[in-house]
Specification:
- InterPro entries: Ribosome_recyc_fac (IPR002661), Ribosome_recyc_fac_dom (IPR023584), RRF_sf (IPR036191).
- This is Ribosome-recycling factor.
- Residues 24-186 form the Ribosome recycling factor domain.
- It is found in: Cytoplasm.
- Keywords: Cytoplasm, Protein biosynthesis.
- The protein is of the alpha+beta class and 188 residues long.
- The chain folds into two domains: 10-28 and 110-186, Topoisomerase I, Chain A, domain 4 (Orthogonal Bundle); 35-105, Gyrase A, domain 2 (2-Layer Sandwich).
- 54% of the residues lie in helices and 15% in strands.
- The protein has four helices and six strands; from the N terminus they run αββββαββαα.
- The strands form two sheets. A four-stranded antiparallel beta sheet has the order 3-4-6-5, covered by helices on one side. Strands 1-2 form a two-stranded antiparallel ribbon.
- α1 (10-30) packs antiparallel against α3 (111-148), α1 (10-30) packs parallel to α4 and α3 (111-148) packs antiparallel against α4.
């Protein structure tokens, strides 16, 4: 009897779970911890020339001092759009416009804002867990199809265990990253 089934693509599942971790890392970088960081602006999009564009693609981002970010906008007509995007970003930063330069003073975080940010971090982590579980579910669907195509039950059990182990490993990484980020946010 020839095997007409395909083993699940574990490398693809690993790659997709790693993608969820990478997305989480980028989201965590956008959370400010009281220090200026150019990556805080990464998720901010500006309506530039009819298309949503990352803010760092319409100007130069600098961090001249620990509590200040500057954004030097290349096209003068984009300054007001960039300022609007920054105000609406939810970062809690009040932009100061000086010609084509937008200054972003990073205020000290108060206790309440730190708690809010830990909740945002927890939300980002939960989204990453959901993404990882969705990848797991795809892997289980691949197994179900392989079973229908003639995969022996023993093989199916081995693959199920491997997919679950992969999922658990990635969920642990998310949990550790969240714990670290929350400690960083709460640090005064």
């Amino acid at each position: 009897m020839s095997a007409d089934y395909e083993d699940p693509d574990i490398d693809d599942l690993k790659h997709r779970m790693a993608g969820a971790l990478k997305a989480l890392k980028n989201e965590f970088l956008s959370l400010r911890t009281g220090r200026a960081s150019a990556s805080m602006l990464d998720p901010i999009q500006v309506d530039a020339y009819g298309a949503m564009t990352p803010i760092n693609q319409i100007g130069t981002v600098n961090v001249p001092e620990p509590r200040m970010i500057t954004l030097n906008i290349w096209d003068k007509s984009m300054v007001s759009k960039a300022e609007k995007a920054l105000r609406e970003s939810g970062l809690g930063i009040n932009p100061v416009v000086d010609g084509t330069i937008i200054r972003l003073p990073i205020p000290e975080l108060n206790e309440e804002r730190r708690r809010e940010l830990t909740k945002v971090a927890a939300h980002y982590a939960e989204n990453a867990r959901v993404a990882i579980r969705n990848v797991r579910q795809d892997g289980m669907h691949q197994l179900k199809k392989a079973k229908g195509d003639g995969m022996p039950e023993d093989d199916q059990k081995i693959w199920q265990d491997e997919i679950q182990e992969l999922t658990d490993k990635h969920i642990k990484i998310v949990d550790a990253a969240l714990e670290h980020k929350q400690e960083e946010i709460m640090q005064v």
